[in-house]
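Cross-check.
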Amino acid sequence: MAILTENGMTQIEIEHPVSIFDELGKVNYFGWARSDLFNFNSDLIWTPRRLITESERFMVFTQTHLFIFEINDSGLLGWLNIAAVSLIDKKISIKNEIIPFPMGGLELSSSGSLIQIKIKKSLIEFISLEDGNKILKIDINDMSHNNRLRGEVVLFKPDNAQALSVNLPLQRREECFQLLCSSPWYEVEGVMQFENVDILLSKRRAWGIHESIRLARSPNYIHFCATGCGFQNGRQIGFYLGYGIADSSGTTENAFFVNGIIHKLEKVIFKISDYDTALPWHFTTTDNRLDMNFQPVQKNMLRKYFLFSSLRLRQEYGFFSGKVTLDNGSILRFRNVTGIAERLKSTN
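Predicted model, tokenized:
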């Protein structure tokens, strides 16, 4: 199904489950869907294993704290990225662990309902339940500043919630693709212990995001994204915005969510200072439906080099404010929604 927006852009919507590969391994389905309808089989990919990325990321937010749990397998170079941020006093404790030569060994695409990572003194479990809920179990003994981060939380899926699933081609690389699935609408219950303080997480006061990426990339890859979620004016809202070297002429990876329902947006314009990314960011879209600012309060820099591979990741943590025009023409205004904005660049 093709959706023609007011600005004249056609966005291809996939409405039934499809395999993104044909029997010869050629990528033959691009577009977006309201659930995870793209069947991914890594055995059919033409791209060399060193250029395949598989990643899982969970984010848990309150108005005072933010937690990031990310596992990435990028062939020759993998990493574990953990961040715990106190948004009020702007303190941050991080753990960035490099995983050399994962080459699919983390089994992020084939581990079913359980992803378990044990590295040195770190234990992470991501558990997916049949009803769509998620469980996170965390025990990180060696965060920066001699901190320990541990806890267990449950991420609850709202009734009838839709997920943004997008498969995009990479420019000038017909064998490459970027498959993203984002669910920025979980409510969270549980407890996280950070800096020897128990942080209680409860529904309507804590929110979560799950992102999954499968990528057959070019040797030089760059991507920007911004995501957040929260509860405003009696409604649960969330969003995912992104752009990079992927070809977004057929669809975009941009959407706003209200009570779990997608409102699809056109191309996003990131306006970032050339000199200091800690300055406010500004976001608009080509369909003029979004006008949003991001105020960073803390950052996490990850720069790693391994053999012929390099990784540069900059994450900014803070608050989003602005307005968005929904599909029915109404305007939703929001203020101080917790989230992150980031820039990722990798070479192989």
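The two ends are 36 Å apart (CA to CA). The longest strand covers residues 173-194. Passed to J.P. for a second look.
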